[in-house]
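Retro notes (design track)

What went well: tokenization of the new backbones is finally stable.
What didn't: we kept losing track of which sequence belonged to which structure.
Fix going forward: every design gets posted as structure first, then sequence, in one message. First example under the new rule, 331 residues:
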């Protein structure tokens, strides 16, 4: 049933349904017989019984079959790794000083340490340090003191006298033989005596940069070459071409000219190339190393810069190489 609205443009209102009565609600509920349910529950009810104790041991229960679980994803372990046998640090050997101190701390009845105890504890440490400093074959103190003393004494002698004579005058027969040899070989008498007595002398020294082998400074026995950089340019180019071997490794020495040997000493920033007349020895190499250390300790990394500022500044230091020579030959 619909109610007509006075307004035709609106939809008609539906009449709301009536509420059901109580009787219809009760009739709609399902019927349940509670009496029959109570009787069936009382008949089927069984009370639990507790088992009596028995003297027989219970049979072992078979383990339940468990399915193999899926592997769990690996987790980052936060626990520190267990140290292996190889990684186990070994306890260092106690020093004499540590053993004396630990013994004094452990024993309360021990009398206080004296100066003699301290001396005995420090004696092995001081002895080992002095042996390492003084008598080490490569890094001992003598490797620095000997070249320094030789250079200082050599310069002092050169400043005071023209030449020092360490040998007696040679005999007439030896002098005559040397003069005849000089005539036969078209050499000077002094040169023949120098070769025959196995003398050595540094005649020129060149300081080169390690990166490009450019000239830093030089020194020469010839006054004209010592004062002119242009006169030594050809010698520097010849030396640079022969500094390395066929494999590209830096050489230690090579024959440069007639009775001249080029000795190469390598430093941190530069190379020292010395032209030695005659055959050199270990003393010559040690003296050249000392001169090279003097130059590098004074200027350091600045020697690697492309500049001509060190050309004349380092010449007095390189002049110390020209004083490296054997004792004066016999007259």
């Amino acid at each position: 049933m619909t109610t007509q609205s006075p307004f035709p443009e609106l939809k008609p209102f539906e009449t709301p349904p009536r509420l059901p009565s109580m009787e219809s609600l009760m009739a709609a509920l399902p019927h349940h017989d509670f009496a029959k349910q109570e009787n069936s529950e009382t008949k089927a009810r069984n009370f639990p019984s507790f088992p009596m104790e028995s003297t027989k041991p219970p049979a072992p229960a078979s383990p339940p079959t468990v399915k193999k679980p899926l592997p769990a994803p690996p987790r980052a372990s936060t626990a520190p790794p267990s140290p292996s046998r190889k990684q186990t640090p070994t306890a260092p050997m106690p020093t004499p000083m540590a053993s004396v101190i630990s013994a004094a701390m452990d024993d309360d009845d021990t009398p206080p340490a004296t100066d003699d105890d301290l001396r005995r504890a420090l004696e092995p440490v001081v002895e080992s340090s002095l042996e390492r400093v003084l008598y080490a074959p490569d890094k001992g103190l003598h490797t620095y003191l000997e070249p320094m003393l030789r250079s200082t004494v050599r310069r002092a002698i050169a400043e005071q006298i023209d030449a020092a004579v360490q040998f007696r005058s040679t005999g007439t027969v030896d002098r005559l033989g040397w003069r005849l040899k000089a005539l036969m070989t078209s050499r000077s008498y002094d040169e023949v005596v120098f070769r025959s007595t196995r003398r050595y002398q540094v005649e020129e020294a060149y300081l080169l940069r390690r990166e490009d082998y450019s000239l830093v400074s030089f020194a020469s026995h010839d006054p004209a070459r010592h004062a002119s950089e242009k006169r030594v340019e050809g010698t520097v180019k010849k030396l640079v071409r022969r500094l390395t071997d066929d494999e590209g490794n830096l050489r230690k020495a090579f024959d440069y000219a007639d009775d001249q040997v080029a000795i190469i000493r390598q430093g941190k920033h530069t190379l020292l190339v010395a032209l030695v007349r005659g055959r050199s020895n270990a003393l010559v190499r040690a003296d050249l190393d000392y001169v090279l250390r003097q130059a590098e300790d004074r200027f350091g990394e600045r020697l690697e810069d492309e500049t001509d500022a060190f050309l004349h500044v380092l010449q007095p230091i390189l002049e110390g190489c020209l004083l490296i020579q054997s004792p004066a030959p016999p007259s």
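Added context from the reviewer: The CA atoms of residues 200 and 288 lie 14 Å apart.
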